[in-house]
Structures are given as structure tokens and as C-alpha cells.
Design goal:
alpha/beta; Peroxisomal Thiolase, Chain A, domain 1; five-stranded mixed β-sheet; 23% strand; binds oxa(dethia)-CoA
């Protein structure tokens, strides 16, 4: 497993300086789904912990949500400019070009480095590691890391295995160069992958492989296909493993963890991982009931919501863990800094 050490850049760490979260106001409740699918509010709540998910309005998508969340993170940090924008997404507005340059442009950030990163639900942690690398190598002094995904456009509305799970949203964190020992410094980011399991979560059509085959794909091949039960087992095992690696590299004990922020894939997965790690479940942060699984947006949105609601407080030691298609996975540590998180959170009203 790759681990970016926080001391690899002459002492320059990536320090969290601002955080923002945004979800569209449109909601799809479990009852809405039960009206068209063979499912129920009771099944979805008990098997996933999800009560509703948000859906972006027609004509808006990943870029628009990334601009909203990114703007909130910049405001939260009080930063007028940044040196690079990374957008972690698997639902870019177009196959090409990347979404990040347009995000940077729409935020008025000038001619800066901007690129997308494809690690699906682990994308935000991969993005944080990238940002730490840019800062350590002095390519940048500040980086805006955004997770934004519009899974409503890739989920088959008639597939009861995926439609209840995924929702749209965006979250963003602004990191700046700082000291590895100061609050907000992102600790070692431990990342991994297992490409031999790529078929467990996939969209078969629309990529170069299918296009080069020259075949006409079935309509369902343009939608996400997930072998939920197998994915569930990997998600649990991989987040436990990477969390233990991240804790070891940070020099933390499990008992040091004040808050556990796991990718909001399924409430049962978060509980299972916390229990296996020995972290009391009440220390696990969660917003899955309100937003569902927002893929690349999941972790930064969770941080923004939790900090804005006072469930994640300055000085608390937080362990981050994520898992997604690829397969990909990762974990990282940070002491939560004194930042004013900004989250558009109509769903908490
Ligand atoms: O974010 C990226 C990574 N993604 C994940 O980590 C997702 C991981 N997987 C999961 O969260 C779960 O596997 C699901 C929520 C997708 C499915 O839950 P499950 O407990 O694994 O259900 P299952 O697929 O094993 O199905 C159990 C039963 C089956 O019925 P039988 O065969 O026991 O009669 C399914 O047909 O539940 C049935 N079922 C449903 N029933 C009502 C499956 N989906 C539904 C549904 N409503 N939506």
C-alpha cells in the first residue's frame, strides 16, 4: 500500500484551512422509490441507513455542484486565490475535457493547474494525497480539493440494487502549506487498489474498450452495475486494513481516535468497520440518512456537515477512511483545525 508521508517535503504539510459542502435541494425519498420499485422505506433504512438522497435539477451536473462546494470552501478559508484545483469525480460533465479547469475558471481562480482525478468513492482521499504532494514539492502553496458526483445520471432508476444507494452532491477542502505538527495537517495518506475486482462496480459501456469493440451495448450497460454483497465485504475489509495502516504511520492508537469519518457507502459498513477497529460507534460521523452515498463527494461533505453541526470540533483527532470502485481504498489522519465549515444543508432543517 502506498503511503504519502507527511514529512516528505522538507516539513511542508498540507493543512486543512477551509471546508464546504453542497447538495441540491431536490430530494428523492424512500417512499418515492417504493412507488416505482419493488422496495420499501423499511428495507432501505434497515439495510443501508438511507432515508433520502438529493438529485440535481436537469441541466446542472458535476461542475455546477463543484463550483458551489468549492466556493464555500474558499469562503470558509478566507482565501482569495489557490494554486491548483483537483476535482475527484467519476461523473465528469463530459468525457473530455476534464471538469476541473471549468470549475477553476467559474470560481475566477485564473490560469492555475486544474485536473480531474478518477478513483470513484476513494477519489477525495487520492486528491488529498495529490494535494499534499503538490505542496511538498512546492508546485503549489494551496490546493482546492473537490469531490463532486452526479450519480443520478448513471444509476438505472429501475435498479433496486443501486437506485436506493446513490445521491448527488459535492464537498470541498482547501489545503495550504503548513507545519506537520499544526492542527489541520493531513497525516500520512495510505492508498491502495485491486484492479482484478474492477467488474464488481462498473459501467460497461461508453469507454474506449466498448467503443473499440464496435458493438451496440445494451441500454443497461450505460448504467452503474454493482455486485453489492461482494462489494460490501471488500469495503469492510479494505477500510479496516487501510485505517490500521494510517493509524500506525501516524503513530496513533485506536483509542486516540475521537471521530471516525468513513465513506458513507452504507450505514452498516461504517458500523462494522468501527466495531472491527475497536472505535466506539458513537464516535463515527454520519450523514448518510440525509444524503445517501455521494461517491467522491462523500467524505468532504461529511466533514463539512459534521463540522458545521458541531459534531466535529477543533482539536479532535479524526480518522478518515474510504473505499470505492476500482477497487480503490485509503485512509488518513488529521487533527481537526479551528475552521468555520460552510454547508448548504436544507436537509438538516
Ligand atoms: O460506494 C461504493 C461502494 N459501494 C458499497 O460499498 C455498497 C456495498 N453494498 C451494499 O451496501 C449492500 O450490499 C446493498 C445495500 C447494495 C444490498 O444490501 P444486502 O444486504 O447486501 O442485500 P442483498 O443484495 O444480499 O439482498 C438481500 C435480499 C435479496 O432477497 P433474497 O434473495 O434474500 O430473497 C434481494 O433480492 O434483499 C433483496 N433486495 C431488496 N429488497 C428490497 C435487494 N435490494 C432490495 C431493495 N429492496 N432495494
Amino acid at each position: 500500500m502506498f503511503a504519502a508521508r507527511e514529512d516528505s517535503g522538507n516539513g511542508r504539510a498540507a493543512v486543512i484551512a477551509g471546508v464546504g459542502g453542497w447538495v441540491p435541494s431536490g430530494t428523492v425519498t424512500n417512499h418515492d422509490l417504493a412507488a416505482r420499485l419493488d422496495t420499501s422505506d423499511e428495507w432501505i433504512r434497515s439495510r443501508t441507513g438511507i432515508g433520502a438522497r438529493h438529485v440535481v435539477e436537469p441541466g446542472r451536473a458535476t461542475c455546477a455542484m463543484a463550483v458551489e462546494a468549492g466556493g464555500l470552501a474558499l469562503k470558509s478559508a478566507g482565501f482569495p486565490t489557490v494554486d491548483a484545483v483537483i476535482v475527484a469525480t467519476s461523473t465528469p460533465d463530459r468525457v473530455l475535457p476534464a471538469t476541473a479547469p471549468e470549475v477553476a475558471s467559474r470560481l475566477g481562480l485564473g490560469r492555475i493547474a486544474a485536473y480531474d482525478l478518477a478513483a470513484v468513492c476513494t477519489g477525495f482521499l487520492y486528491g488529498l494525497a495529490n494535494a499534499a504532494g503538490l505542496i511538498a514539492t512546492r508546485a503549489a502553496d494551496s490546493v482546492l480539493v473537490i469531490g463532486s458526483d452526479t450519480f443520478s445520471t448513471i444509476v438505472d432508476p429501475m435498479d433496486r440494487g443501486t437506485a436506493p444507494i446513490f445521491g448527488d452532491g459535492a464537498g470541498a477542502v482547501l489545503v495550504r502549506a503548513g507545519d506537520p505538527d499544526e492542527p489541520g495537517a493531513v497525516g500520512p495518506v495510505c492508498l491502495g487498489s485491486g484492479g482484478e475486482w474492477s467488474e464488481l462496480i462498473t459501467i460497461p459501456a461508453g469507454g474506449s474498450r466498448q467503443r473499440s469493440e464496435g458493438t451496440s451495448p445494451a441500454a443497461e450497460d450505460y448504467f452503474i452495475q454493482m455486485q453489492g454483497r461482494k462489494v460490501y465485504r471488500h469495503a469492510t475489509d479494505r477500510m479496516v486494513e487501510s485505517s490500521l495502516t494510517a493509524l500506525e504511520r501516524a503513530g496513533w492508537q485506536v483509542g486516540d481516535v475521537d471521530r471516525f469519518a468513513a465513506h458513507q457507502a452504507n450505514a452498516r459498513i461504517g458500523v462494522a468497520v468501527a466495531e472491527r477497529l475497536g472505535i466506539p460507534v458513537e464516535r463515527a460521523l454520519s450523514n448518510i440518512e440525509q444524503v445517501g452515498n455521494t461517491s467522491g463527494a462523500s467524505l468532504p461533505l461529511l466533514l463539512a456537515d459534521s463540522a458545521a453541526a458541531g459534531r466535529l470540533r477543533p482539536g479532535e483527532k479524526v480518522l478518515l477512511a474510504a473505499f470505492g470502485a476500482g477497487l480503490t481504498w485509503g485512509a488518513a489522519t488529521a487533527v481537526w483545525p479551528d475552521v468555520t465549515a460552510l454547508s448548504v444543508h436544507d436537509y438538516r432543517a
